[in-house]
């Protein structure tokens, strides 16, 4: 993609996936409050929801930023949410928004690269499963547990919130999720998912993780191509990834382009 097309795609991404975001599950909600779009996973109230809470988009300036940050902290703290994330993109305003978030007690996590690729081009990648690898489509709790096993070993952390999300989507909105596990015999060695929004030009690729001893064999590439074929068949135009430093070089070689950067800024309630 050239610079002009990238600018158009980035504007579409902001419009559809940030300002026009939809809730992942029936018990969550998206609110457009003034110059902020926020996502609340525990929409029924009571705090402590298992899902993601945070700010997806903002349109701030030097005069409004501090007050808006304080308002969102007060909102989530008032709901008893233990932590929430302000998802900051490199092109967000004002230019010193990151400094203002840190001053308000937010802690940045590692920078991710926002990347996009055309689904039809990625679907046409010549990919064959590595020897001994088969793909298992996730349709039930047993499949989700295989994914969680891979993620725990690949990333070194348990992810109960992701397990909750996947089980909820499979039950309530299966058309929005495509999840897959790469199996070596009876052993799960890699897993990934794709989340799709009705009417959106974008589908998000998430959770791509491979056990260390199985990396470098083309499994990650296989899972990208598999999901791209599903997206292209549904008429989805772009695949989007918040790529880690490990993933971004692979995605670039596959044909993804860089739209910018994103940093999760996390606020945690004090004990």
From TrEMBL:
This is GCN5 family acetyltransferase. One of its GO terms (molecular function) is acyltransferase activity, transferring groups other than amino-acyl groups. Residues 133-271 form the N-acetyltransferase domain. SUPFAM superfamilies: Acyl-CoA N-acyltransferases (Nat). Coiled coil: none annotated. InterPro entries: Acyl_CoA_acyltransferase (IPR016181), BioF2-like_GNAT_dom (IPR038740), GNAT_dom (IPR000182). The keyword Transferase applies. Gene3D superfamilies: 3.40.630.30. Pfam families: Acetyltransf_6. Keywords: Transferase.
């Amino acid at each position: 993609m050239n610079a002009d097309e990238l600018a158009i795609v980035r504007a579409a991404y902001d419009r559809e996936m940030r300002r026009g975001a939809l809730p992942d599950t029936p018990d969550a909600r998206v609110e457009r409050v003034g110059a902020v779009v926020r996502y609340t996973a525990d929409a029924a109230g009571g705090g402590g929801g298992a899902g993601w809470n945070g700010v997806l988009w903002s349109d701030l300036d030097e005069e409004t930023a501090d007050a808006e940050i304080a308002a969102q902290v007060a909102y989530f703290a008032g709901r008893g949410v233990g932590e929430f994330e302000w998802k900051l993109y490199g092109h967000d305003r004002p230019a010193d928004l990151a400094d203002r978030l840190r001053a308000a007690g937010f802690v940045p996590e590692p920078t991710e690269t926002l990347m996009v690729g055309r689904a039809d081009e990625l679907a046409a990648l010549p990919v064959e499963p590595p020897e001994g690898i088969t793909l298992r489509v996730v349709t039930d709790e047993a499949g989700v547990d295989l994914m969680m096993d891979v993620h725990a070993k690949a990333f070194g952390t348990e992810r109960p919130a992701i397990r909750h999300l996947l089980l909820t989507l499979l039950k309530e909105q299966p058309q929005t999720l495509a999840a897959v596990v790469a199996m070596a015999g009876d052993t799960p060695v890699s897993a990934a998912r794709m989340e799709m929004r009705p009417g959106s030009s974008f589908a998000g690729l998430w959770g791509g993780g491979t056990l260390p001893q199985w990396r470098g064999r083309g499994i990650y590439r296989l899972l990208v191509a598999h999901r791209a074929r599903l997206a292209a068949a549904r008429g989805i135009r772009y695949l989007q990834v918040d790529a880690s430093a490990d993933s971004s070089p692979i995605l670039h070689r596959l044909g993804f382009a860089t739209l910018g950067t994103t940093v999760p800024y996390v606020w945690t309630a004090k004990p």
